[in-house]
Amino acid sequence: MDERPLDAAVVGAGPNGLTAAVTLAAAGLAVRVWEAATTIGGAAATAELTLPGFHHDVGSAVHPFAAGSPVFRSLPLAAHGLEWLQPELALAHPFDDADAALLDRSVPRTVERLGPGYGRLVRPFVGRWDALAPDVLRSLFAPLPRHPFLLARFGLRALPSVALLARRVRTRAGAALLSGMAGHTGVPLSAPVTGGPALMLSLAAHEVGWPVPRGGAQAISDALAGRLRALGGTITTGHAVASLDELPPARAYLLDVAPSAVAGLAGARLPARYTRRLARYRRGPGVFKLDYALAEPVPWRDPTCRRAGTVHLGGAVDEIGASLDAIARGDAPTRPFVVAAQPSLLDPSRAPAGRHTFWAYAHVPNAWSGDLTDAIERQIERFAPGFRDVVLDRAVTSPAALEAQNANLLGGDLANGTVCGRQALFRPVVAVVPYATPDPSVFLCSAATPPGPGVHGMCGYHAARVALRRVFGRRDTRADEGDHAGE
Questions:
Q1: In sequence order, what are the residues at sequence separation of 6 or more whose Cβ sits closer than 8 angstroms to the Cβ of residue 43?
Q2: Percent of the chain scored above 90 by pLDDT?
Q3: Which residues pair with 254 in a beta bridge?
Q4: How distant, in Å, are the alpha carbons of 9, 225, 240, 268, 269 from that of 244?
Q5: Closest to 282 measured CA to CA, from 366, 382, 206
Q6: Model-level pTM?
Q7: What does DSSP assign to residue 327?
Q8: Which of 238, 305, 406, 442 has the fewest CB neighbours in a 10 Å radius?
Q9: What's the pLDDT tens digit per position in 216-228?
Q10: C-alpha distances in angstroms, 330 versus 180, 258, 286, 319?
């Protein structure tokens, strides 16, 4: 064990916990991370889930926000093995009776399929990712943004529902493609702020792509861990922390955990009024996930789907909306909206020679206990007749199985809390500095804090920056979080 006095202890080695640790270690602090699982990464991990030699992403598979993350882009992660592989097309969205809607790195080529309304939507922000992303991927109560007029213009498009945004595009293909991107949240298309994820995913496609990491999502986590160790930090795996009191004394504790776990970890350090507020934090929908080992690539009816790293299976807007509305009512969708990825088309290391991997999921109500396998496969077969004939093996991961793998994914909730209503903007409680708690040494750094879900590390980065100022007195002229009470 490192005998150097511990400055900061981080609980959880997901991307946010690792990013928090890297940020603190880069400031010269002694940092140690504890992880309950025997491997690091949380939902950003890769494993042989089906047959030997087939490497599947346990959670996330395609990573536009990781490739575009302001903090990841500032770190030398390539030196620790992270390599991005870009598909020819970011996304294909096939239909039964028309050519697929396509999201291309090129705006003009995308406009050819989606119509001029799509161009008018995104062009004010194209070429401005490095200015826009830091201002969007932060807390709403942060001090003045670096580019306030750009952010305000983005907000006018992002704050309404995607249903309103889709109407501005005015084409069937454009409306469906935007609705599918908002469908990643699992909330109804009519919900406020759903325009934001759709627009950010669109801009990411044009600015940084929708790439996959060579070797799988584990490469992101391993690169962050490599950077942490290079800075002198340490990681302990296979140790489930039940209480902060069992850890060595530290000046700051950063928790990459679900809000429901905070009270148990911190105990009497936190007042009951604060833990009661955390208890009101609402879970998001669950995920039902399938991983496939394939004898050959997916036999898409529309061959352009073969050129895309990600494929959305849900048809037109009405069908996507019906699927998401059913989940909001507590019902499993009969025709689920399916998000699929085909990483082995880009990365042959994911499968034995000539074979392929395929990754697909659909949202279901939180903690749903049924089996959605047949419904998902019917959606795949609908757009890829003969799909079942090329399946060698499949791994079925229910919401309960996701939670068993990772205690943060309560009820199969990959987003660590719904992004609907108040929680779309204020997570996990309404606070000027949501990363801070009433205990001046305890901070939250999971996806339950702003900017929310996604493999981007920004939750951990902002939490670490707050800890640096409040605990260690490291004033940062770039600071983009307020310095007020977090209670």
A1: 14, 58, 59, 60, 217, 406, 408, 409, 414, 455
A2: 93
A3: 10, 443
A4: 9, 22, 11, 11, 10
A5: 366
A6: 0.95
A7: H
A8: 238
A9: 999 999 999 999 9
A10: 20, 22, 11, 17
